[in-house]
């Protein structure tokens, strides 16, 4: 005796999406751990030079950045087209560097100060004149650990 | 008893997606990297004294002018040759009078002891015992640039000089331990660094013709 079922009653049950949040959370945590927040918005144009002998910057919290480059088009009416220094979010003068470094030091614990590194992000097209001036300013305030930020290139 | 129905969790995915997209937008994947350099302290009297002590043959003078031309020891050189020139200067394979002086580790040990730097002396002692008293260079690379030099040329020159030091260190560690410098443990790296100390001296800013 065969059993018969009425046609049309058989339906595919909906695909369970209960695990979808888990998958998405996994992705989320992955991205949270491998990425870092953008430090600041650039107000100057920076195309980094390339180098082969680069080392990675460890301890992000101990690094302060100094940006140098020609101001972006929207700031050129105010700051001109010559390369300028950007500290935090502002295009600044060379004389502001000492204050900036003092401020950076204040925001860290005292024992961390000797390990603080200053990373120079300078546009390839900038002239050494401004970079030399910055270096002199840094020396004046005993900020001697320096990093020239570059992109990595493989050694031939 | 009243039965509590399950909380609908279907919107959880949406919330998580929102967070995910937020992090994707605000973050950058690129790792910061670059060339590390230690600036000299601002004391100028000290610096002049140091320069006087260094023999002429132990200084490799590298000049970059405002037209981004490179001169090594007075002659115009292509930037691609700089690494080889520096390696030759540092290792001095032919024992030439014009390239850097090679001092045996045992003598360096004595010098450090005379100055009372026991920590430094200990490193040279270990070198003498473990690596067969290698010659240690007294070479210093002196780099001078003009205010009009382009930044990327300056970085390339810096990079070429650092490359020379790294290649020298690599060769030394491969000869002694059969491993590149990066794979050595910290103590051995210290030894290699003592043989090839990264000594790049940058002049006080002035015009370079």
Mean pLDDT of chain B: 79
List the secondary-structure elements of chain A in sequence, H or E. Answer: HEEEEHEEHEHEE
Global structural class of chain B = alpha/beta
> Based on DSSP secondary structure assignment, what is the total number of beta strands of chain B?
9
Indicate the percent of residues in helices of chain A. 25-40%
Low-pLDDT stretches of chain B: none
Number of helices of chain A: 4
Major sheet details of chain B: 5 strands, mixed
Measured by residues with Cβ under 8 Å of the partner chain's Cβ, the largest interface is:
A-B, 55 and 43 residues
Radius of gyration of chain B: 26 Å
Biggest sheet strand line-up of chain A: 6-5-4-7-8
Shape of chain B: elongated
Oligomer: heterodimer
Cα distance spanning the termini of chain B: 95 Å
Secondary structure tally: strands of chain A: 9
Biggest beta sheet summary of chain A = 5 strands, mixed
Question: What does the model show?
Answer:
- Chain A has 156 residues and is α/β, with parallel strands linked by helices.
- Chain A has helices at residues 20-34, 76-79, 96-106, 128-140, and strands at residues 36-37, 50-51, 55-56, 63-69, 84-87, 90-92, 117-122, 145-149, 151-152.
- In chain A, the strands form 2 sheets. Chain A has a 5-stranded mixed sheet with strand order 6-5-4-7-8, covered by helices on one side.
- Chain A is elongated, with a radius of gyration of 26 Å.
- Chain B is an alpha/beta fold and 209 residues long.
- Helices cover 45% and strands 17% of the residues of chain B.
- Chain B has helices at residues 12-26, 44-53, 82-91, 105-114, 118-130, 151-177, 186-195; strands spanning 27-28, 33-38, 59-64, 70-72, 75-77, 102-104, 135-137, 140-145, 200-202.
- In chain B, strands 5-4-3-8-9 form a 5-stranded mixed sheet, with helices on one face.
- In chain B, α3 (82-91) packs across α6 and α4 (105-114) packs antiparallel against α5 (118-130).
- The radius of gyration of chain B is 26 Å and the shape is elongated.
- The model of chain B has no long low-confidence stretch (mean pLDDT 79).
- Chains A and B meet through α1, β1, β2, β3 and β7 of A and α1, β1, β2 and α6 of B.
- β3 (55-56) of chain A pairs antiparallel with β2 of chain B.
């Amino acid at each position: 005796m065969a059993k018969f079922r009425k046609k049309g009653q058989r339906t595919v049950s909906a695909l369970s999406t209960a695990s979808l949040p888990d998958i998405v959370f996994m992705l989320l945590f992955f991205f949270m751990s491998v990425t870092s927040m953008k430090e600041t918005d650039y107000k100057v144009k920076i195309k980094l030079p390339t180098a082969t002998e680069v080392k990675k910057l460890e301890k992000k919290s101990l690094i302060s950045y100094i940006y140098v480059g020609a101001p972006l088009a929207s700031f050129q009416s105010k700051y001109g087209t010559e390369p300028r220094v950007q500290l935090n979010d502002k295009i600044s003068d060379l004389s502001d560097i000492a204050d900036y470094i003092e401020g950076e030091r204040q925001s860290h614990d005292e024992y961390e100060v000797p390990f603080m590194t200053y990373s120079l992000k300078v546009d390839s097209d900038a002239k050494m004149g401004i970079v030399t001036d910055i270096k002199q300013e840094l020396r004046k305030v005993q900020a001697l650990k320096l990093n020239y930020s570059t992109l990595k290139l493989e050694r031939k | 008893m009243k039965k509590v129905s399950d909380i609908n969790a279907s919107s959880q995915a949406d919330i998580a997606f929102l967070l995910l997209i937020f992090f994707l937008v605000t973050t950058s994947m690129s790792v910061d990297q670059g060339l590390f350099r230690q600036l000299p302290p601002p004391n100028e009297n000290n610096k002049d004294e140091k320069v006087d002590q260094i023999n002429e043959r132990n200084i490799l003078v590298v000049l970059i002018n405002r037209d981004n031309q490179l001169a090594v020891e007075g002659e115009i050189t292509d930037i691609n040759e700089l690494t080889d020139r520096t390696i030759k200067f540092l290792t001095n394979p032919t024992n030439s009078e014009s390239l850097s002086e090679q001092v045996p580790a045992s003598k360096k040990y004595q010098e450090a002891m005379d100055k009372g730097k026991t920590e430094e002396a200990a490193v040279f002692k270990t070198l003498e015992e473990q690596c067969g008293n290698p010659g240690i260079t007294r070479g210093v690379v002196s780099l001078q640039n003009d205010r009009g030099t382009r930044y990327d040329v300056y970085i390339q020159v810096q990079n070429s000089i650092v490359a020379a030091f790294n290649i020298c260190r690599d060769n030394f560690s491969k000869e002694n331990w059969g491993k590149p410098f990066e794979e050595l443990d910290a103590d051995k790296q210290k030894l290699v660094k003592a043989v090839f100390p990264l000594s790049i001296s940058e002049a006080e800013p002035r015009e370079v013709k």
